[in-house]
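Practice problem: predict the structure.
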Amino acid sequence: MLPIFAVWLSGAALGLFGVEFLGFNQDFLPPKQLDAGAALMATLTVAPLILAGIWVVWSFLLTRMTGLSLREALVLDAPTYLPLLLLGSAPLLSRLLGAPVAGNHAAVVTLVTTTVCGVTGWKALIEGGYVNSWWRAALGSRAWVIGGVILFFLVTGGLTMARYGAHNFWGVDLAQFDQALWNTWHGNVLGFTQYGGLPETLLTDHFEPIMLLVAPLYLIWPDPRALLILQAGALALGGWLVYRLALSYLVVPLVAVCAAFAYLAHPGVVNSALAAGGSFRPDSLTVPLFLAALLALEYRRWVATVVLVVLAMMCKEYIALVVIPLGFYVIYHYRRPGLGVLLSALGVVWFVGVMFVVMPALRGGSGSIHFALNFGQMGGEAGAGGIAETLLREPRTVLRLAATQPDILALFFAFLSLAFLPIFHAALALVGLPIVAMFALTTVPDLFEFHLLPALPFFFAAALVGVANLSTWIGRRTHREVGQLRTSWGVVLLSASLAAAFFWSIGPLGLNFWSTDLPYNNWRALYVRDAHDARLEAVVEAIPPDAVVLASDATLLGLGQRPVVYHFFDPPPAEVLANAPWVVIDLFETYIQPPKVSVRAIDADATGHTAGDPHLAGRELYAQLLASGDYRVETFEDGILVLKRRAAGETSEGDPFTANVVDVASPTHAMQHDFGERLQLLGYDLTSDTAPSPSGERYRVAYYWQVLDGFDAPFQFRYGINPKDHVQERTDENVLIDTFDTPGEAPLQMVHVPTFLLLPPSEWRVGMVIKEEIEFSMPPGRRLDDYRWQTGLYVVPEHFAIAAAPERLTPGTQLFEMRERKATGNP
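Answer:
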């Protein structure tokens, strides 16, 4: 009777927390309306019944592993659910504090992770001694690790390939590595040109000489996907190295298996394998290199340790920051002063030499753009020297930047994901802290991001030694068998990693992967290739292979392998822009830029600009290029805009896109349709080219719009892992989009480019009448009558792609279907 009561009581606590979560929390689920009866039913019946089902199923499995009877297994397992009572404290605390604890993201993560660790750890401790030796050997087999490593590589590698095909990587960074490696075999070693035509290499933007060793990969497969596969493979290899380290530190095979799976499930590892900030990052190579170096230290292979550490430092200029304390750790833990001094000296010489001598010399005395972008508050505009001066002269500024709430929470959650086990071997955990401290001084998000990868091997290794130290300490005071305690804490480590994965992973173990409430992390948004992606690739392939191109982010993924290509994020000076005959813009790409970006002030001398010169990017540059008359529209298909420089003497007469303010509207097809009392469609003219064309029938439509109200009302948009904590208030960016739907095919989408770029709705005034003319084509063999043609007014939140999605409709507006299709004349 007592076990049944224990399970029911734990289930009731779980139900109380569930009611609290559903009633108040909006971080992960939409608000739920629960009346008192439904809440009581969930608390007293539903949750306890679910827990009872888990109890019975697990107890049955326990009989297989132990030989106990089902009744004995039920009695043995029941007390392990009592830690769930911790969750029941949430409703009580919410009443005492007057605020819903389950509505606070940090409280939810902490409560759930702590409870999961408590349940699984206690279960392993109580029941582990009853598991027979055959099951221990089977569960501790290295075959599990090999299978897990292979599965990790197949899943992350496969998803990465799908994400690349869906054009959801950050083109400016991935294309940078792609062009640099392609250029290496075409006469320009590690050179790339995306940053405004300046002579950049992978030794000046960051210092990444490791890419010289990666370059031969492009002799086998010259494709950016080769780098993404390399990244997934390197991180997968880390799982095997963690297993070997755990065997060395802890001896118990089952614990080593748990450690390997904790690594393979950890969001810091998975997120970097799937995206790494939307690109390939050499930082990912430091993980297996540092893990192998720690393993070499255990095997007393000192030369191999030095070689591996040097290779790791070659991945990026600041990696040496962890090598300096690693030398002190070697002296402290391994009693090898000679090796320790050598490693620390290598770290100091490498860091100082690269940051203050090599990179400035290669850049002609200027600092890296990343100093200004990430360390602006630390004097980064003056380069590494300015940062060093701030560190020495303004310690209060440093402390203020490092001790912010987001940084503290990030460190808290990073250690929570490892069950705080690294603090029980703090000497090794401290080796990774310089990387954490460095990014605490920046505006770069560092929670489970690729920036923390160089520290992750030391945190994991510290957690493993922490398991050993904690188990020994508890064993001496409780007289429990140390091996059993190590197994229990190994399970706790795995549980903490899985709990962190649920909240933070962008992979299949995370809620973000499946939740439709977070569209920018959902698998459909990231990994599903659609007809737009195929059209984008076809358009990009039509650009001459040696042409100089100015490209938006998504299009760069197919344009990197050429001598010169520029990116909109940081466009070239006017004299360089004049040499770019082609411009390619994907208006539906994920990483669309805000209207104004100015990130190259630090390079004013190199560009020839003064500090006050305008520096355009994103949509502002798009508009300038269209308005200049220097370019004509070569292709406009499904939001993909290709511009080509006009030939000498070529005029703009007959351009397919215009927008003008007119006095009177005189449409052929007159109507009056209001878009939320903001905008009214007065009608349109439609003409078509009836001559057969391999590119599809071409149409020209002239819309007549009248402004009823302004467009400056604030708009709230939820995004990110935890939308409630990151609601951003933006000014409306309204965009007109036509959609063409037909059963069985992906919809075609047409952004109204003239009113989006040349005369955006934010500039419209009440009473204006705008005539907007657009030309477009149907797919080969199709006519306009084959589609349902709708027009809508959509909101584009800053930093996000244009999207003709229902949730993006401007509040208070509805789609309008164009039913009259009669066309006259020729466009």
